[in-house]
Amino acid sequence: MFTLNVRGMLTRKVLIPVLALSLVAASVGVLAKRSMVGAAEAIPLPTFDIPAVSEAHKASALPNVIVVATGGTLAGAARNGDKTNFQSYSAGTYKMEDMVAQLPIHKTADVSTYQFGNKGSGGYTMKELYDLSLAVDAALELYDGAVVTTGTDTMEEIAYFLDLTVRSEKPVVVTGAMRPWDVIGTDGPANLYQAIKVAGSNKTKWFGTVLMLNDVIYAAREVTKSNSHRMDTFDAPMFGALGYVDDPAVRIYRAPARAAKAGKTEWASPFDLKKISKDSLPIVEIAYNYQEAGGGAIRGFVEDGAKGIVTAGTGAGGISSKMSAARTAAIRDKGVVFVSTTRTGSGTIYDGGSGNTIGGDNLNAQHARVLLLLSLAFTNDVPTIRNWFTTFGTQDVEISVDANTFLSTSIEEPAVEAPVAEEPVVTEPTPEVSEEPAATETAAPIESEIPALEPVASP
Ligand code: ASP
């Protein structure tokens, strides 16, 4: 029997002891954080006017999907009646109720709507995203799946925020459009229709939040906007799509790491927003590295009260010596927590295992910022945050075979001596390592501790 063992050996040998220690530290950290927030005070939670499922929809055999609308280009109207201009329009104009009513009769779901807001994606504050997440959970208490419409500019951040915070395992599908609702060749109606189809299919239940535009389904954690204008702007550079929406099928070709925990308590993220006040969402910023980048951005962020800073470094996360000096001072003087990511657009920054600088795994800077912001809202304990970065939703697939199982091919291949591998040539020093002070130095990647796989004998 083969078992798909996500993070298998690495988890047992390295991460479980680290996790055990972190959990103890976490309780202390979370408690410390709570007492700062004021544990005895009741947290004021928003309420939402989510429409009840109508009697007609209850009676129908179709799944009940709710569209939670926030605006964006999807709800945009042509400016001055010019239906040929895709770039000059009034975003967040049309109401979702009216847009859904204009769609052809839906064959795959009974659809209701909830207008959360109506503006561009970049106009939402993190506190409003806190409310949005709670609204989605409230809607999913009544409905079988939710579509969340947003502008595409910060859609990947909104989607990942929902992925990290929504408690329900039901499908959450984020969509939007690159062209306003009423221009020629608009992608709005088709995207809305297809997203409803994905949510109604129930096929992304347990996936966390997914994003669907242009018929392509992506995991929120992996997806990024890659072009300012094109309709196929979304991409998941390291991973590709989860699946596609065609007629009649929604096809899912692979599952994100979270789905491997379906039905288990670990499936839920550590970020239950009902346990914190939205006022405890801290300031977390992103500093972008480039040739001879200065340290002013980091110093300015710290002066503004940032508790966490994500660096978008060059190559494998490198930052300039001036930026590095500013980071060292921010850690030493203010205990700021840093996460190292790459500006290259894809690639993993491995975690060094200690200090206040955490490797961002394969999150891009804007995703890492969302995770760091939520982490710092729940704890000040750096090992706990490090553990969340290293394990929550991260992909590390390993196939383990038990003692009674062997791998073989039907045709026995003659043994071929493997060519001797040449020593890899290191072409570039890693500034992350060379410029870090001893306290935050990046240790050797933990992957090096994984023992080589033993060949399994044939019978
Ligand atoms: N500026 C718009 C927004 O992000 C773009 C879009 O909706 O696609 O809201």
Folded structure, characterized:
The structure is a single chain. This protein is an alpha/beta fold and 459 residues long. The protein has eleven helices and 18 strands. Mean pLDDT is 85; it is low at 1-39 and 410-459. The protein binds aspartic acid. Residues 72-73, 91, 120-122, 151-153, 176, 178 line the site of aspartic acid (ASP).
Features:
4-stranded parallel beta sheet; 2 domains; 459 residues; alpha/beta; globular
Structural class: alpha/beta
Number of strands: 18
How many domain modules? Answer: 2
Main-sheet strand order equals: 5-2-6-7-8-9-12-13
Indicate the radius of gyration in whole angstroms. 24 Å
What coarse outline follows from CA principal-axis ratios? globular
Number of helices: 11
CATH architecture descriptor of the largest domain: 3-Layer(aba) Sandwich
Helix/strand order: EHHEEEHEHEHEHEEEEEEEHEHEEHHEH
Oligomer: single chain
Instruction: Give the distinct bound molecules.
Output: aspartic acid
Strand content is 15-25%
CATH superfamily of the largest domain, called what?
L-asparaginase, N-terminal domain
**Span from first to last CA?**
15 Å
| CATH level-1 class of the largest domain | Alpha Beta
Please tell me the overall pLDDT: 85
User: Looking at CATH, which topology of the largest domain would you report?
Assistant: Rossmann fold
Low-pLDDT stretches are 1-39, 410-459
Largest sheet: 8 strands, mixed
Please give the share of residues in helix.
25-40%
